[in-house]
C-alpha cells in the first residue's frame, strides 16, 4: 500500500485522554429506557455492510456523479478516470446492496440511484466535515 492509499491513523484517538467513568455504576433507568432504541444486531450488520461499501473514495465519487443524473458506464469511467471494467465492478457492488438501478438502451447501460437516502447521507457527512473543518 503506497502513501496515498494508507488508511488514516486512528491510533492517536485510541490512546488519547478520553474521559471515562471513575465509578463503575450502571444506571438501570438509563439502560432500560435506551434498550428499546438500540439497533438489533442483524440491522446493525446490514447498515455496517452499506457503510463498508461507502468506505471507498472511488465509490463515493461514483455515487456523487449519479446523484446529479443517470449516467452510462462510459460516462462514469470518463468522469472518475477509472476503467470501464473498474466502474462495472463497483456498480455490481452497488447493485448487490440495492443502491443503484440500471436500464438498457441499445448497447448502453444507464445507472441511477435507487433513492436519495444514500446521497443525503453522503451530503450530511460532507456538511459535517465542512462545519468541523476536518
UniProtKB/TrEMBL annotation:
Keywords: DNA-binding, Transcription, Transcription regulation. PROSITE patterns: HTH_ARSR_2 (PS50987). The keyword Flavoprotein does not apply. Residues 39-133 form the HTH arsR-type domain. PANTHER family: ARSENICAL RESISTANCE OPERON REPRESSOR ARSR-RELATED, HTH-TYPE TRANSCRIPTIONAL REPRESSOR CZRA. This is Helix-turn-helix transcriptional regulator. It comes from Anabaena lutea FACHB-196.
Amino acid at each position: 500500500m503506497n502513501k496515498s492509499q494508507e488508511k488514516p491513523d486512528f491510533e492517536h484517538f485510541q490512546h488519547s485522554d478520553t474521559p471515562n467513568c471513575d465509578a463503575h455504576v450502571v444506571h438501570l433507568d438509563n439502560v432500560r429506557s435506551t434498550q428499546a432504541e438500540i439497533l438489533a444486531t442483524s440491522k446493525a450488520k446490514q447498515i455496517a455492510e452499506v457503510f463498508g461499501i461507502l468506505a471507498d473514495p472511488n465509490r463515493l465519487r461514483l455515487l456523487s456523479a449519479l446523484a446529479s443524473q443517470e449516467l452510462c458506464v462510459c460516462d462514469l469511467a470518463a468522469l472518475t478516470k477509472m476503467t470501464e471494467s473498474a466502474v462495472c465492478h463497483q456498480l455490481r457492488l452497488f447493485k448487490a446492496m440495492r443502491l443503484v438501478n440500471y436500464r438498457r438502451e441499445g448497447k448502453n447501460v444507464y445507472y441511477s440511484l435507487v433513492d436519495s437516502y444514500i446521497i443525503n447521507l453522503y451530503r450530511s457527512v460532507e456538511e459535517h466535515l465542512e462545519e468541523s473543518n476536518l
